[in-house]
Write a structure and sequence with these properties.
Elements: E1 2-3, H1 12-37, H2 41-71, E2 83-86, E3 89-93, H3 100-118, H4 126-164, H5 168-182, H6 223-226, H7 238-241, E4 264-267, E5 271-273, H8 302-313, E6 333-336, E7 340-343, E8 347-350, E9 353-355, E10 363-364, E11 368-370, H9 372-393
Amino acid sequence: MLIPPSPELIDQPTVSVLSAFEESSAACISDMLRQVSNGQYLDAIRMAEKFILHVEVLFGAIDDLEHHFAGNGLKGMRTPHLRLVCLKVVIHLLFSGMSHVREARMLCRKTVDLFTLLSHTQETGARRMGMTQELLALVTGLAHYLKILIRIALTGALKLERDYDAHEPMTSFLDKLHMLAIQGANPSAKRMIKGSNGETLASSRSSNISTEGVTYGFRSLAPEFAGESPFMAAPRDPSLAIVPTVNPPSDLCVKCNQTVEEDCVRLGTYQRWHSSCIQCVTCGKVSAVPLSKDANSPRPDDRDKERERDREKEGSSSKPSTQRRPPANVTFFVYETDSVKDTTAFGPVPNVICCVDHAHNGCRSGFQSVSRLEQYAFLLNVALRRLYTLLKKRGVVPASPG
């Protein structure tokens, strides 16, 4: 259990921003369920998209905080028994192994489970009653993990401010949440930050490349790169209508055709590879960076064993790591422009990838590393679009949102 910071011990602007964000997220869920119960499935899809945007913005803020910790060679928000005293705030994490990765993964899993359940809401009888109980459990779980992740982000920002005299992370964290509220959590709202002459701001070596240049969320998922929401009715933005998209997008690796569930590599928004699948066709070099063995890593405790038992109960044989992995070495890889072929599942993808040592004049750079939380946000969008496609096939929602 987490003991939340007492509201009177935190400055009022911080309380207001965090409370507004949490209430807005909860309103998305309640409105979505109400619309489903009234048979307004397209409106429910749109509200689910708003909720996913809330999750993306929170993930992006946590990703930024992790970037600050990593840049200072710190262990960040994974430190066991973290006890932070900042100003007059005392936040206790009462159990060891508190990791935002596990909480983020569980939030995504329950969101996808919610979408799956909503796809069966037309069923009646005993099954319908059982679904109502499942629905309540899922909504409770969503609220639970969302609260925990908000507190983890707040704790991380306060730690940077208090212990390392870094004030920008807290300001940036609150600004992103506040800007989302100002734009009404509109999934089609433009996010790119422009310079005085309208140019896109260049990235900085010290910035988090996943979130740099956008007001909130992840750069790859901004409408300027991912395209306008497919659930939006007219009028539409002409400048966003020309952005190339893939609907529905795929969660599979371009090379091995297996699901990409963790940090990876992308080209544009819709083409994604496992880091080990970005490989030079000549020498076999891969972009994945081997994990270092930390001799000071904490030994598994009772909670670790409990989590392992939970995974076994869920039927999952995989053991996804919560260790922060270094980003893929994407700067060392290019692709042959002549090898790019248009595909239905991924859009235009290259068939020939080379390392810079074996590159030639017909090669181009463009690969970007994708953090774990950025991929989670992408997968939520994939899941929602699959739900929309399924409901269209059943005739529950119109073929065109207009």
